[in-house]
Structure of IraD/Gp25-like domain-containing protein:
Amino acid sequence: MAYPDFPYHIDTQGRTAVTSRADVMRDRIEQLLFTEPGERVMMPTFGCGLQRLLFAGMSDALVENTRTLVATSLQTWMQDEIELSELDVRFDNGALLITLSYRLLSTGEPQQAMFEREVAV
């Protein structure tokens, strides 16, 4: 089955670009991680709120808080879609790096994704 790709765009044949279920789940995780709560009018609690942490001083406590925030958000918003197996959060060379290992519940297929955002130093 094909799903509309995110962000929405037109393919080379002039139709809505489509992608796989695994890619859709990765895109949804990315949207969850980098959406601020209150940003979506009809879903005011959706989002992880990582942007506000990017201006905090880097420390072990910040890494653990970020890890907890990500795990809680994924459990809250994607519990029917994925099962999280590993989560790694690091700050490296001015960037926040989040690496996830998870299993798609619909297929049982294991997946891995890495997300990166620049941070203020």
Remarks:
- The two ends are 43 Å apart (CA to CA).
- The chain is about 30% helix and 30% strand.
- The chain has a mean pLDDT of 89.
